[in-house]
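Ticket #4471: complex job returned nothing on first submit. Input attached below:
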Amino acid sequence: MTDFGAYAGKVLKVDLTDETWEEYPWTDKDRERTIGGKIMAAEILFRHIKPGMKAFDEDNWLVVTTGPLSGCGCPSSSRFNISTISPLTNILTSSNCGGDFGMFLKRSGYDGLIITGKAKKPTVLEITQETVVFVDAADLWGLHVTPAQEKLPPKTGKMVIGPAGENKVLYAAVFSGERAAGRGGVGAVFGDKNLKAVTAAGSFKPEVADKEKLKETNKKWIEQLRKHPLTGRQLPKLGTAGLVAPMQAQKILATKNFSAGRFDEFEKVSGETLAEKYLVKNSGCTSCVIQCTRRVEVNGKVVKGPELETLGLLGPNLLNSNLELINRWNYELDELGLDTMSAAGSIAFAMELAEKGLWDNGLKFGETDGISELFEDIAARRGIGDILAEGTKRMSERFGGKEFAIQAKGMELAAYEPRGAVGQGLGYATANRGGCHLNAGYLVVVEGLGLHINPYTPKSKAAINIFFQNFMEAISAAGSCLFTSYVVFPGPLIAKPNSFITKFINFGFIAVGPVIALMVKYPAIAGINLPLIKYPYALKYAAGMKMNIGKMLRIGERGYNLERQCNIILGQSAGADRLPGRLTDEEQEAGNKKSKVPLNKMLKSYYRIRGWKNGVPKKSTLKKLGIDA
Amino acid sequence: MAKVNVRFFGVMRADSGMGNAEIDAACVGNMLDKINGLLEGKLSLTFADALIYINGVRCKSKKARLKDGDEVLFISPATVSAE
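Support reply: We reran it on our side without changes. The output follows.
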């Protein structure tokens, strides 16, 4: 139980081996220290994991968590998180999803769900307020993502895996509706546990601390999101795919397995072309006012269209400019239950291996015939698909080519080529779950896709990166979509990129790096609230939690260190924050020495500010954050 | 006067429906005036509203001269419609 509002107050722990369940102890002190979401999951796993534990051990836990803002009328805040030991990276992964399972889990009376053990046969877990039922899933096993969900009870929140998860493809995803918890192979852990699906239902509605003030805050927040140039105009009209053209301009559009940052035929795969030729309508996740999802037609059905990452990695990164095909591939990968990003990254690497004569696999950049069949082979672990199912890092260990194996800590990178945005490169290298753009801190948003600070200088990038990583960690823990954070950049700075004031801010951002570093080290100096940043207000009125920007930064910092410490326990060694040689040693533009990621230089500042030694949190840092090492 | 090919991106393209245009202009400021003419009052763009790249290089002044055959990328990320 809890004295806070907005929370359901209970965490459910289910054992698939014995088909038993119990309440997991979770206190208000835990809630205050973690908020919820991915930090809550990291805390639970930190208490559980032991050295040597692996993703497919029976004792590996799947931890599904919600945030307190979910189900409280807060805009774009219904996301849920799945954390576990990743089979792809062998460290912690946290995978976030916009599907409706989190909302339903809360309605069933739980803020979180811990799944332990291993079912003896394919199973569906049905959770309600009253009970937990373990249902035989023999008739669902083998089904694709949509048909499987259609067979589950109506009016429930759902999580399912497709064939890829059943066959333990290392980057298999979990789906809730059409939305994916895509990264890190959480679907493979479901598959290993013989868990085909989970449903949740109920009528529980948490009380909030101050209903009237929360309603007022939400109204202002919705208005703010609707008026902002990015969340109110660019994302609804063009989706995340609207970033293709700015990425092309900035030389950060990953092309031909990250060998270049520009693609001659970029316009054919741009958000503008998607909107003009294929968009049926836009839509969004539960409670979302941004509505960035594209809906397109594939095989006569209206389905979710590709996000920027998928589009970039299945398009320019494979030298493919056929957008209709990308729409179809995106749908096929989703239905098979694969992470589109890791699948596309692995294929790009396999194409380059073939081009360099390191693996005769029949794949070629720009050739699209047979790729749909290859997806099926990956999901079924058939032929070369079985090798591709292991991901880029393992392929590089088998065939060579480590310098162009585009992964960090075993996870394939997102579609941003970091030699044109070096701070994003630092983020990829340091991200706790591996080559993820969001866990990285998403510095591209100030290095050319929103603001335009100097993308090539290493100066101040460490401080800005840590600030973003910590703040986004806390936003995610609250249950909010990270896109809501765009509104912290005043609209005119985005809408008028060439104005004097925008140019001044772009310059100033780098100059105030030391101040940002101070704020990161001593977040108490940011112990204020600003009308522009709604999260602390929403947490105060929803949960009754005393919150301000500084506290959010501290909670985010603790979460980031907690995840890092989990990784250390799981065997991540010092010096793991690396990028492939292509990105750090090869110039993107011949003769331009700045066009490569000066990683070592930035890492030095990064570790100093974080209080880490070569990627490992110092004892004094852990003590300061209240993490028992 | 130089004849340049301009390709439009961003919300401005979604609002105006204009994907590209061949424009005769001596400099970037002059090109902007011509673009506003083509938009027939639907939008009124200033140099501050857009990121302009000429042959792949970011243009920093509206006085920048144009040459025949220049490829211009005109990205207006989130221009507010005049409607």
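The mean pLDDT of chain B is 90. Closing as resolved unless it happens again.
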